[in-house]
Specification:
Blueprint: E1 3-8, H1 14-25, E2 28-31, H2 32-42, H3 49-63, H4 67-78, E3 86-89, H5 94-101, E4 106-112, H6 116-126, H7 136-145, H8 157-162, E5 166-169, H9 174-189, H10 214-233, H11 242-251, H12 262-272, H13 277-286, H14 292-298, H15 302-318, H16 320-341, H17 350-356, E6 358-362, H18 367-376, H19 384-387, E7 392-396, E8 399-403, H20 404-423, H21 426-429, H22 431-435, H23 451-463, H24 476-488, H25 497-506, H26 513-535, E9 540-542, E10 549-552, H27 558-572, H28 578-594, E11 603-606, H29 613-616, H30 636-644
Helix pairs in contact: 1-9, 2-3, 10-12, 10-15, 10-16, 10-26, 13-15, 17-20, 20-23, 23-26, 23-27, 24-25, 25-27, 26-27
Length: about 650
Amino acid sequence: MLIFGVCGSACSGKDSVAEILERDFGFAHISTSKLVRDEVLNERKKETRENQTDVANSTRREYGSEYFVKEAIRMGMNSSQSSGNLAVSGIYCVGEARFLLSQKDSFLIGVAGPDVKDRFERLKIRIAGKQDHMTFDHFMERDLKENSGQHDWEPNVEQVMRLANVVIENQGTYEELQAKVHAEVKLITGLSPFRTDPHLDNSKKEGLKSLDQINENVDLETRYEAFRFISDYFAVVESLSPMEKALAPLISPSHAVNHIGNQIGQIIVETFLEPDAYKALGRFRDLRPRTIQEEMILLVNDTEFLNCHQALTSSLKQMKDQIYDSSVKNIRQIEVNDEVQFNQKESRSVDAMISNGVRIRISSDAFEDLERERKNHRNGMIPLIEVLKNEKILDVSGFQDSKISHAIHDTIDHAWLFWMLKERGLFEKYLVLFDSIGNPEATDMYKREGEVVASIGFGVRYWANIEAGFIPKVSITDIAERFERYFDLGELDALHLDSYRKVRELVKYPLQREAQSLAFVFSNYLTELDEQRRKHGKIKRKDTRTKKILGELDPWSPDYLSFFVEAHNLLLNSKNRHRNTLHLVHLLFEDYLNKDDSLEGGTLILHMNTVLNQWTGLPRDGEDLQSPLLGLSLPPERINWMLANPGFTAFKDQVV
């Protein structure tokens, strides 16, 4: 096994060199910085730079200067995600460097970045939009500390660089760095890269494009594929009979799980991505179930877990190029979305949707399948929209091949919710916030930025069917503490006071419905944000005066957090009839799918200010509203089922 250590100052390009070794030569890549962060979390400390430095120094002092490098090499030897060779980035101490170089077939590459000012500019791009601010003075101070170590367990990058076998200058483009790494590896080892195509690097692009990094997207794509793999691995086999499916957890050779939610799924993926299988198993066993669903997931025995871990590791290795290529496509689409964000003409604004309505039509290719399902469920209790919710059979207001579940999302969480919030004056109240992200309410509510609103509606629907006992990643106490911190810092003004008072009231009674819902819905938004970043890119925020891009919209910012609390409160307020409207839309969709004219090219048109006003209590002056339920012909049992399961179209898996 070849072992390449990579050292250099902060933002010099250490991880970029390691990633070239990983992508182009098939090396496994392990970052000692990641190991330090894991150690910080294991000690239940906050992931701050100060804590990382303290933990790293105390660990090396107690267990030996080589501790993190030795751990990285051990993990690399157990990893099957590589060609058998290993790149270890983040060699900071002389003791680490000497230990690495004492290993057989080991080499140390130093990376000499630009001057400290240019490296600070790289850092600003890296942390843009994050709650992780650093001034140039702080960066300089950190730089000095990383070169001041007196013991072999303390950081001293300058001394480590003197031990390097080769030093690569990294002051130009990524392509130039890639060519230098290829040449040096060839010279040292005789190895040639098996990939020579240019790596997509947008880290030095200005403005919008610099916020979505290809390396970040590859990580998100990897986690997405890992979640899919784990879900499929433990899914109930579709070929089983209904009785076999019901008994699958008891009689299946491998444990079967019907559904893995996104929040528990994110935690489980973290354990499976640990390269060391037995360390991953230990972390998995440390998880404590709080619901029956989580208990079913964690019932996986040790052999099944290890088999899945091995299969996942092998699958991700085989998919490495495919994942990278998918991320390149994602970045290209994100660049298109970025161009549109602040240059969108009015097309599907709130006013346009009020005028035109949401138009639903069955795709002609789906007629035969729909007719067959209609015959199978003509008098049954389970609605067609539950059976077919994941099928792409609809055209919805210009979106072709839409799933039924997406059509409900577009109708309720976009069109109706945008309309209701406009009626209640929330967009006007938070005009500065929405100006800073491109005004989706006034241009196109279905573009990327529209999800800052629609995700709240989706989360409320999702929460309606969440099992009792579920504990979200963010609690109502966490939200209240954030507001209190903003208040103490003087960052709250009149705009935020209504939300501040509401959260202070909710935190007194954390078990009440609105408090539990708010914690879940906000947690769900934070979880889904990674999926949005992967496919559609980060939502950018600009200075409305200078038009300069400031970074990513921070979901924890006072403005957005306050908007979130108020919008959520309006959704749960019975005066706005959200639950009633959702039930009505389910009924209208179900009735449409069961009518013959849906198979004859008929269109279902849902106007926010006519059909839905009947239920919201917000009629417009001078309108003569007729009941949308006249002529409805559905079995009463089916209507009652939909009423009892209000969130069923928010679940990807069957509720039945």
